[in-house]
Amino acid sequence: MRHVRINSLVGSLSLLSFSAMTQASGFALIEQSASGQGLSYAGAAASTEDASVMWFNPAGLTEVKGHELILGAHLINPKAKFTNEGSYLSVAANKIQGSDDDGATTGFVPNFYWKGQYKDYHLGLGINVPFGQHISYDDKWVGRYHATETDLKSYNINPAISRKLTDTLSFGVGLNAQYVDLTMEKKANLGSSTGSSGDGNVKIQADSWGYGYNFGLLWQPAQSTHVGLSYRSTVTQNAKGTIDYTPNFRTDGDISSTVNLPAMAVLSVKQSYGRKFELLAGATWTKWSDYGSLVIKDDAGQTLTDTRQDFKDSWRYSLGGIYQATDALKLRTGLAIDYTPVSNETHRSPRTPDSTRKWVSLGAGYQFNQRLNLDFAYSHLFADRSKVNYTTDDTHYLVGSYESSVDIVSAQLVWKY
């Protein structure tokens, strides 16, 4: 059995990354709170409406009174239509035959948060999905030699603790245990001409646990002002799995891999104007250069493929507002711009056809009584048209463009006890 060493897991054979289907930059999922969703996550590290703040800033738990339990969910409906504009096979100087396709699939993202208190310490537990999506292209689409199937599931368990250091300053810290499970497929060109026939299949399956930490500060320089600053560490995944070839045009083998899932820093401000209105703003930096690119080597140290993705660090900016319409009803809205880490069209894999996105969000929260609250939100994401001129082997060139958009519906139930 041949053993294959993969120097990065996410994106292997361009098979793990799937950012056009996810809703933060790269292949991250920002959908971690329905109340935050209604704001386009503006001010996420300073907004302490409920215990979901712990994902963005564990110090915010000090502003959530008593005990709280949150169950949330997000329904994500993306579109990512690829139009072929002359994909070609360089060896035979011929066009690659195949159809256009939309690999996007509807996704479901759950969240769970618990908040408790012991003396002066505020405790939290979050279980959520920081990365994950399913992209499925037709077996005959024109980009099949780069990707047909990507199915990634991740789960993050995040206990946290926080405390007020002074009357105006809080500090919080958390630990993270993150599980990743993935299945990735693509076609292999076994023919000698245009690739219209003679395709094989390459399938990778792998899973892994990785560990990290997060911490944050929440400062209240004035009664009406909150400033939040937080950091979430890189999580290194060392995965093991298998690679299978059908038919047996190569020898199946075991695989191992290492990937750095990116660090993230958030700076947020919340400004209150009386009891009716709050203005929120934020900036998020994601260190996508931690991920970079992928090189696959065999046991002899020879490179099998290089994804040539060259991810760059990215920024996200957001602005939102909360209006207390009645004692029971709260209205939210927000705007954001999310810059892509994909540097140019030659690094845009069909598993990462990411482009800069603009967010528009609306939300509402209704308080049934002192213990029970329900939040809803809707977001539409406008994505820039993204060009593709991509190859990993200097033989199969995918040339075209993606037209993308996303609709997200979110809801969460908040129980105070």
Tags for this model:
417 residues, single chain, Porin, mainly beta, 2 helices, 57% strand, elongated, 14-stranded antiparallel barrel
The fold-level CATH name is Porin
Overall domain count: 1
| Secondary structure: helix percent | under 10%
User: What is the number of E strands?
Assistant: 24
H/E element order: EHHEEEEEEEEEEEEEEEEEEEEEEE
CATH architectural group: Beta Barrel
Rg over alpha carbons: 23 Å
- The general outline is elongated
Strand content: over 45%
Q: Give the distance, in angstroms, between the N- and C-terminal Cα atoms.
A: 56 Å
The CATH homologous superfamily name equals Outer membrane protein transport protein (OMPP1/FadL/TodX)
CATH C-level category:
Mainly Beta
Report the major sheet.
14 strands, antiparallel, barrel
Average pLDDT, rounded to a whole number, is 89
GO molecular function: long-chain fatty acid transporting porin activity
Protein name: 47 kDa outer membrane protein
Family: Belongs to the OmpP1/FadL family.
Keywords: Cell outer membrane, Membrane, Signal, Transmembrane, Transmembrane beta strand
Question: How would you describe the overall organization of this protein?
Answer:
The protein is 2% helix and 57% strand. The protein has 417 residues and is mainly β. It has one domain: Outer membrane protein transport protein (OMPP1/FadL/TodX) (Porin). The longest helix is centred in the N-terminal third of the chain and has 4 residues.
